[in-house]
């Protein structure tokens, strides 16, 4: 796996060690437009890698530098997510331009890339996240069609819990407290609930706290959540 070098000028110095991987979709009409924007000094955005639909991987920013992919974001107490993370942009038009499933070749390339980065920096599964996880009020990517289960089965992401589920019967306040403990910014309550559903219960994204959501979240807070078999 040798990435094609496509340098972007949009980076600066890190102030935190690398402890996270953030997955995005490009959300533009095509890959060429997205890559051009990520390399445009006027745009002031970038990522470390772009994965095209055919599985081609481009490296835009060296891993040791701070790419500008996360924006205003928060995860598990970290507010400068750019400094703590590697950003991977996955070419897909996104919800605004005809959101569609991710091709197998692209997903396989993402898996290889995530695996290498995870091992290199000893990143935990709970810190391999979606852009929507770290910025729920602003972002939906990589979205409900991204196959997180494939990554989870390879221990490259947390699984969707499916075993030994119990309903803790939390009210809204308790659920939000648990969601915050898990890692989400819950200042926008509805956005946080929707982001959680998009990631862990994508077949029903309605912003409602139901028994299934409570059971999934409780299981995720346990030491070894089990599922995605």
Automatic annotation (TrEMBL):
Name of the protein in its database record: N-acetylmuramoyl-L-alanine amidase
Q: Which UniProt keywords are present, listed alphabetically?
A: Cell wall biogenesis/degradation, Hydrolase
Enzyme class, broadest EC rank: hydrolase
List where the protein spans the membrane.
Answer: none
Give the protein family. Belongs to the N-acetylmuramoyl-L-alanine amidase 2 family.
Protein's UniProt keywords contain Lipoprotein = no
Q: Which reaction does it catalyse?
A: Hydrolyzes the link between N-acetylmuramoyl residues and L-amino acid residues in certain cell-wall glycopeptides
* N-acetylmuramoyl-L-alanine amidase domain residues: 6-143
Q: What is its EC number?
A: 3.5.1.28
């Amino acid at each position: 796996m040798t990435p094609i070098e496509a340098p972007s000028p949009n980076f600066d110095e890190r102030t935190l060690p690398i402890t996270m991987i953030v997955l995005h979709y490009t959300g533009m009409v095509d890959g060429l437009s997205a890559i051009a924007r990520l390399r445009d000094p006027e745009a002031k955005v970038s990522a470390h890698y772009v994965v095209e639909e055919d599985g081609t991987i481009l490296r835009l920013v060296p891993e040791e530098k701070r790419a500008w992919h996360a924006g205003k974001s928060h995860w598990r107490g970290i507010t400068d997510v750019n400094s703590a993370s590697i950003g991977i942009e996955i070419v897909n038009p996104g919800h605004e331009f005809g959101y569609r499933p991710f091709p197998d070749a692209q997903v396989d390339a993402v898996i290889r890339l995530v695996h290498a980065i995870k091992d290199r920096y000893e990143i935990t599964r709970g810190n391999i996240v979606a852009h929507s996880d770290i910025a729920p009020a602003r972002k939906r990517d990589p979205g409900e069609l991204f196959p997180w289960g494939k990554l989870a089965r390879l221990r490259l992401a947390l699984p969707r819990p499916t075993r030994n589920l119990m309903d803790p019967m939390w009210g809204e306040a308790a659920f939000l407290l648990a969601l915050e403990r898990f890692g989400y910014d819950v200042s926008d309550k509805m956005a946080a609930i929707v982001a959680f559903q998009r990631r862990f219960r994508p077949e029903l994204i309605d912003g409602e706290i139901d028994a299934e959501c409570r059971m999934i979240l409780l299981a995720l807070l346990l030491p070894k959540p089990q599922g995605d078999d």
